[in-house]
Specification:
Blueprint lengths: L3 E4 L5 E6 L2 E6 L4 E6 L7 H13 L3 E7 L3 H5 L4 E10 L3 E8 L11 H15 L12 E5 L5 H11 L10 H8 L3 E8 L2 E11 L4 E9 L8 H15 L4 E7 L3 H9 L3 E12 L2 E10 L6
Parallel strand pairs: 4-5, 11-12
Antiparallel strand pairs: 1-2, 2-3, 3-4, 5-7, 6-7, 8-9, 9-10, 10-11, 12-14, 13-14
Helix pairs in contact: 3-7, 4-5
Length: 292
């Protein structure tokens, strides 16, 4: 079966559906990313991925898969880089696999020690039950279509480049209408910090992502404030499992998630192009939004 139905993505990337699965690929992060894998599409899906690697010369394949599909990937030389229990519908684990057609892509070199240091710091700061309130003069709310221009402006200020076109108001409006909820922190009516929750309603999980704070408003724990507002909204929507992929060399974001009770799940080596370079990413998760 050929890849079909192209969806919005970064200018140099392609996001396509294949059966019930979803693939992103392109030179933006020089990789193939299996965003969603349905077991009914295996093993043909992996043959097509191999074809994309051969055709475009990608140096990494990254895959988020349900645990019951692991054997297909292990048999083809994929490595586990992160693991989250009870990811899908609070029952099935998610495995985050990688394959490196270019072995050099797997090497973190001099960054390895710093990544380990950041993980150690974040783990030492992990808390449960802390409450973060907006500072005086700041307000929070879910963003609407009318906020897309202001949100894109914040993203353009913070990120020179990004894996998805969050700099484009049209992309923000499109994703708002489908599967992403955006949140904003305002100071005297001005949008100064943003974030988003990318929802998998069927799997009852959400990725807490796209955090950005204007430079002059940093140091106020606005990311923590936003994250807890996001968690409350996810609980309201019955999204049971929350996870994130944070820059491995960013102590601030790793500590933010640790302070809100997230558990470290693994490091995705040289995984994502962000701010002009391919960076390793740390994965963490929380069940704090589970409702009973």
């Amino acid at each position: 079966m050929a890849l079909t139905q192209q969806l919005p993505a970064a200018p140099t990337d392609t996001v396509q559906k294949r059966g019930k699965s979803l693939i992103q690929h392109g030179k933006n992060s020089d990789r193939v990313y299996l965003i969603k894998v349905h077991q009914a599409d295996l093993p043909e899906l992996l043959h097509e991925v191999a074809g994309l690697v051969d055709k475009h010369g990608y140096s990494k394949v990254f895959a988020k898969i349900p645990g019951d599909a692991a054997e297909e990937f292990l048999a083809r030389g994929y490595q586990i880089e992160a693991f989250i229990p009870r990811f899908y519908n609070q029952r099935t684990a998610a495995l985050f696999f990688a394959r490196y057609p270019d072995p050099a892509r797997a090497e973190t070199g001099a960054a390895a020690a710093e990544i380990a240091r950041v993980v150690k710091i974040a783990r030492a700061r992990r808390q449960k039950g802390l409450v973060f309130l907006p500072p005086a003069g700041f307000t929070l709310r879910t963003l609407e279509v009318a906020d897309a221009e202001a949100a894109a402006a914040v993203y353009r200020t913070v990120f020179a480049t990004y894996p998805f076109p969050i700099h484009d108001p049209a992309y923000l409006r499109q994703t708002m209408a489908s599967h992403v909820v955006y949140f904003g922190c305002f100071h005297e009516g001005r949008l100064v910090a943003v974030s988003s929750a990318e929802l998998d309603v069927e799997g009852e999980n959400g990725e807490m992502t796209d955090f950005a704070t204007l430079p002059e408003f940093r140091g106020r724990r606005l990311a923590c404030v936003l994250l807890q507002r996001m968690e409350a909204e996810m609980a309201r929507r019955n999204i049971r499992m929350l996870y994130t992929i944070a820059r491995a060399l960013s102590p601030g974001m790793n500590i933010t998630f640790a302070l809100c009770g997230y558990t470290f799940a693994g490091t995705l080596r040289n995984n994502t192009q962000i701010a002009g370079a391919i960076e390793s990413m740390n994965q963490s998760y929380s069940f704090s939004a589970i409702t009973t």
